[in-house]
Amino acid sequence: MSIKAVCFDMDGVIVDTMRHHVDAWRHAFSEKGYDHEELVFYLREGMPGKKTIKDVFNHSNVVANEELIESIYVQKRNYFKKHAQYDFIEETVSTLKVLSDEEIPIAVVTGSRREFVSEVLSKLPVTFDIIVTGDDVKEGKPSPEPYRLAMDRHPFKPSEWLVVENAPLGIQSAKRAGAFCLAVETTLDKKYLGEADKIISPKDLQYHVKSLVNGMT
To answer: Which letter does DSSP use for residue 84 in this model?
Structure first.
């Protein structure tokens, strides 16, 4: 295997924001009288906002009109923007520094909006070669479109890309795009990450990424 570029999801991989996204989703649904467990939203990480709402309602056998969907979507965004605080995931940041120092192309592919992505990435000590946000695609994860868009911006084959993910839909997106996928257990237990090529602890991320880039697997 020859890995020439590495792509990272953002929420839950680079920055510890997923718990705030989940809190915002639960608050927005609860305000309309619908209560859901945290896992409902963790398992839908990466799915576009309005599609998340529709999917949750479909699985609950609830018919929701566009007005309700829009209201929940706006409330979630506003709550997240007001209350979210975040810390960078140290193991990922150190891995990014190593890749940057070795001039390995790095990309970020996320379902988050460009405004928030720009805010987060501006605080990192590295510069990404490629950035794909939720505003750049028609279909979010698990569609392969987000990762394929990143791949199309570099001359490498899909099989030469490594993707670091933390959620089932992101893993599916990466695999459908043709990449090798590492799943880190930052937000979900490994039983939910089984479609990845390898599941690892965050503390082992740098070792596995360097091994794959150096062809040591």
So the answer is: -
